[in-house]
Amino acid sequence: MKRVLPGFGLSLGFTLVYLSLLILLPLSGLVFKASTLSFEQFWSIATGERALAAYRVTFGASLLAALINAFFGLVVAWVLVRYPFPGKRFVDSLVDLPFALPTSVAGITLATLYAGNGWIGRHLEPLGLKVAFTPLGIVVALTFISLPFVVRTLQPVIEDIEPEIEEAAASLGASRFQTFFRVLLPGIFPALLTGFTLAFSRAIGEYGSVIFIAGNMPLISEITPLLIISKLEQYDVVGATALACVMLAISFVLLLAVNALQWWSANRHQSRRTGA
Amino acid sequence: MSSYVARKANAEPRWVRLSLTGIGLGFLFFFLALPLVAVFAEAFSGGWGAYLEALQHPEALSAIALTVLIAVVVLPFNIAFGVAAAWAIARFDFRGKSLLITLIDLPFAVSPVVVGLVSLLIFGAQGVFGPWLAAHGIKIVFALPGMILVTLFITFPFVARELIPLMQAQGRDEEEAAVSLGASGWQMFFRVTLPNIKWGLLYGVILANARAMGEFGAVSVVSGHIRGETNTLPLYVEIIYNEYNAIGAFGAASVLALLALVTLVAKTLVEWRMRQETEMLEAGLPPEKTS
Description:
By secondary structure, chain A is mainly α.
């Protein structure tokens, strides 16, 4: 009874061959290339002064961008699900803009907006706040490109909250504030964390939008992907490979974290529904 | 029945609702709406004439043609892989399935720059196949084939990710019925499976297309930036921008922004269609099956 349907061998075979040829073999080529280095060599490249500064900028800016998105993404998702307002359908569609807009377009536009004579920069600079061509610009670009993740992860979860839970909390005397922070927030927290991790993971790999607004000063506003490119442009393939390996390892860890979080979130959801 | 009462009991005070709406919409205004408006404002800052002139530049036209060409080549591969992977994963049980699903997501997690670098390591002059390719006069890196390869890598998950949950939710009953009534594999696929998944498939293709046309980092590494030859539209935007030709850069950028808007509209329409169909499906089922 199990194998009534045809095409198992064909579809799985094609999937595995295509996956291996296009994704797995090339990525293992990267690891293979890095393994021609001795451990000391690899370590000295991966922890060089410029590399360490680049990690600091990349992870610091990505963390800030993901935190900004976690907060505002929660507000936006809440407002989109719960409150009626005119033009809601339009706003809801617009949230996906960073997925649809090419990163180089985002980069030149944000750089122009936040430059000293730009629409936004013009009002910030008299306040002593320089955004374009500083590390702050990197945070702005990364916030833009990772904006949809938290909103899109939270929306379905907020939609699924059963009103009975809130009613029960309210009828037991909880204030609206208490209900949100002690009843609702713990329920949506796994999804919030998933969205945060997705945003963070997207942000650390980003290149296109950042290079236009960052100023790209080594040790100050140079992100790791850009350092890989500049090593390549100096024909330092080995150096680029070592840094790429570090990035790849971090991507792997984050991917596994997202999977674990999604599993946690789904389980929690399930056990709530079945009342277990 | 109780939903009206529930809504009243669960509502925040009016001032909280208004300020949350204000904060959320304000954030979206500054981070999404303003940049979108700015692209077009900058593009038209020199008037219609300058805008059209910028777009009719031969290098801009060849960049548009190359961008479209890459998408046209890449999308059929995405469709074939997405359908095959979703069929295997949603219709059969086998060991290592969750590992396979995780691996399909892998290209989302890898930095585009790393993807480009990997292609150089394999097909570049000092790469694994570099000497052999050079001896046979085949150019992959700094040419179209390399750009297609990295775009295939980058857009790999989109269609599969849309189809897997959709086909899992639909279940295998209809297809099993078709086969037990004597349909051949391909008959079943074209008459039962494909009509059922067509909106999900289209959705995945829309997303993959937007990414294929907009990819910058990975393509930038392997393109070699040969003007008029290996510049896609996003790369052309960069070059022109770095030459301080703002109208030219934003002119090209406005074409990509228009593409993004078309993508968003198409996506919304398809989402609406899919929601309608699931509602019809749920309405047609006996109540005990839907929960």
